[in-house]
Amino acid sequence: MNEITDFLNSNIKALRTTDSVADAQDLFAEYPFSHFPVLENGVYIGCAGSEDTELMDIEKTMGDMRYSFERFFVRDTTLWLDVLEVFAKNETNLVPVLNENNTYVGYYEITDIIKFFDQTPFLKEEGGILVVEKGITEYSMSEVAQIVESNNGRLLGAFISEATSQRVQITVKISLGGLSEIIQTFRRYNYEIITEHQEDAYLNTLKDRSDYLDKYLNI
Question: Could you tell me which residue, 153 or 70, shows the higher pLDDT?
């Protein structure tokens, strides 16, 4: 399986604050990006939005519209699920990538990240889905893994799918086999079983009904 950084893209150079708005409009006309990074003296200062750029005077520079820039980004060490969250929260199809020294190194496109997501065992391999809930100060991911593996299950993935100040829900994907025993053990450890789904139907439903993924998968 690829690493997420294999999808790091730098084919198109970032805009600069000295570039004209007309240059940016040409870029957005040629490529289906919702945003594109802007650098000032080589330093990332934010993303210009295609809609904002379209409304600007073509004789102005990108520096003149810095007030409208959005300042989201990820690191080149950011995990793929967190990268996907940044895409969703900012309703964008492109996210700039900075290294540990805050140097701009390129960008991710949503279509590439979805391809990466599709390659993960969480989606690719057959299994059962459990959503369990427990007090936010009482759960641990190591305990979740131990419950699955002590019942001869194979943990394919787990993430926090919902959280409040009091409770946390964890979505767990488990290789098929022994699911009822795993559920019973979760209950013994005082986890509430919110829902259980055999096979990959639950994940397919999540994908099919996600307005965000539907919007960008076909770009």
Answer: 70
